[in-house]
Amino acid sequence: MFKSNTLHPARLFGVSLAILLVVANHLVVAADANSDAQEQIRQQERERAQREQLTPTPDVRLDQGEPATALTLLPKDESPCFTIQSIVLTGDSSPQFQWALTAANQKNDPPTGRCLGSQGINIVMKRIQNAIVAHGFVTTRLLAAPQDLNTGVLTLTLIPGRIHAIRFAPETSSRATQWNAVAAKPGDILNLRDIEQSLENFKRARSQ
């Protein structure tokens, strides 16, 4: 005798119920996973927003120096301090930058004749550095080497930022060469004004 393959109604109901339970379970798991993923995305967005609020926006503008405000005035009662009678600028190409020393003597707040400590000396250096940068020498820096300030002389060392090389992109016009478009050459002290002038020269060479 042949056995019938037809499922008994009770068994059929049991199988159907089991399938529904499995499908429902998968749907619940999928819904939980989707909810967790959305919550994780929201958390990441909140953290990113907090980081953006805490991270200061970089200022790419050229620093033109700071006025002698309450924040940049020389301190009066530093200890220890040394009476500074003169400020000297030395180093490679320092004769070219002697003019920057005048920036240290801001109106009503000169450093000479004052007793300065580390904070006051840093303010003096910042004044001179700002003046150098304001004239376009954005890669030239000042250093204060170890020295005996009991002499009354503050010696600052100039470190000029020089152009190492000038390279042209392969697609650069033959008219725009180093000799007729770039207002500087390797070995020169880098000056932002020369770069701006070079860009203007490139524009003119391209239009010819």
From TrEMBL:
Signal peptide residue numbers: 1-30
Domain called ShlB POTRA: residue spans: 162-208
An example Gene Ontology CC term for this record: type V protein secretion system complex
Span of domain Polypeptide-transport-associated ShlB-type: 82-161
Entry keyword set: Signal
Annotated region described as Disordered, given as residue ranges: 39-65
Transmembrane segments: none
Compositionally biased residues, Basic and acidic residues: 42-51
Any GO molecular function: protein transmembrane transporter activity
UniProt xrefs under Pfam families: POTRA_2 (PF08479), POTRA_3 (PF17287)
InterPro entries for this protein: Polypept-transport_assoc_ShlB, ShlB_POTRA, TPS_OM_transporter
GO aspect biological process, one term: protein secretion by the type V secretion system
Keyword Nucleotide-binding in record: no
Protein known as: POTRA domain-containing protein
Organism this protein belongs to: Methyloradius palustris
